[in-house]
Write a structure and sequence with these properties.
Cytidine Deaminase, domain 2, 5-stranded mixed β-sheet, binds tetrahydrodeoxyuridine, about 30% helix, single chain, alpha+beta
Length: about 140
């Protein structure tokens, strides 16, 4: 979220959910068949989307959330206001550990909504998902030993 103190855009969760669903249509998930879309609203009102991009070398799979973050940062947007994640699981699933760390880097209080296909809405935020996160302040506090 913005550190500027300015009021951010009103979050249109329905519009973000629609954008995440469109992104999910482009999922490249031939291995897991678990299709995920993410839509990230930035402080200046733009929406960046991402989807999961898998690889035959499984460890290289990129999650939808980190795809969306990369798209936003590439466009110069780093102040995040809200995130929607939609997947084709029955119930809502929340971001993986790696994505939690990446989201927390930019927006520790980021509100997040997740949805599956059979209803169920999970509302959370980045700090709730990753308490005691490792962060820049930890690096800054290092001592020579
Ligand atoms: N995946 C995401 O894109 N986001 C999540 O929050 C959880 C997992 C992707 C990674 C992989 O392509 C597939 O879902 C199965 O793990």
């Amino acid at each position: 979220m913005s550190g500027s103190g300015e009021t951010g855009p009103v979050v249109d969760w329905d519009a973000l959910t629609r954008a995440a669903r469109v992104a999910r249509e482009h999922a490249y998930a031939p291995y897991s068949r678990f299709r995920v879309g993410a839509a990230l609203l930035t402080h200046d009102g733009r929406v960046f989307t991402g989807t999961n991009v898998e690889n035959a070398s499984y460890g290289l799979c990129l999650c939808a959330e980190r795809s969306a973050v990369a798209a936003a940062v590439t466009a110069g947007a780093r102040d995040f206001e809200a995130l929607v994640v939609v997947a084709n699981g029955a119930e809502a699933t929340s971001p993986c550990g790696m994505c939690r760390q990446v989201l927390h880097e930019f927006a520790p209080e980021l509100p997040i909504q997740s949805r599956g296909v059979e209803g169920g809405l999970l509302k959370t935020n980045a700090s709730e998902l990753l308490p005691h996160a490792f962060q820049a302040a930890d690096l800054a506090s290092r001592r020579e030993d």
